[in-house]
Amino acid sequence: MSARETRRVSVRTDAFDVYMGRADWTPPGFTGEGADGYFGNPVGTLDAFRPYFERRVEADGAYRARIEGLRGRRLGCWCRTGKDCHVDIIVDWMERSDESGILSKMAERLGNRNNPAGA
Ligand SMILES: [Zn+2]
Question: How far apart are CA 118 and CA 114, in angstroms?
Fold first, then answer.
């Protein structure tokens, strides 16, 4: 299993797995994950989103679990490439707190301990 890169793409021009914008801007016909606007920025500016996100992802376990579920997927937003976007803040956070990386390293270590011969 190889970890795919989590990346932001444009819903205007690219294929995407999860819609990251607000519910009132969901791309016509898209009914997949995020179509309900769950991952949108509810607080307006990026400066406001950063502390909102940091606080919520620490305090809200259900939110954090859904954010963790975005790893390795193509995250679609209306923002143009090169323009700052709240999705960048989310991707930055995932890169800083790579729990899946830590967990797979732990599992590897446990596996070696339980099976020292490697047979
Ligand atoms: Zn955006």
Answer: 9
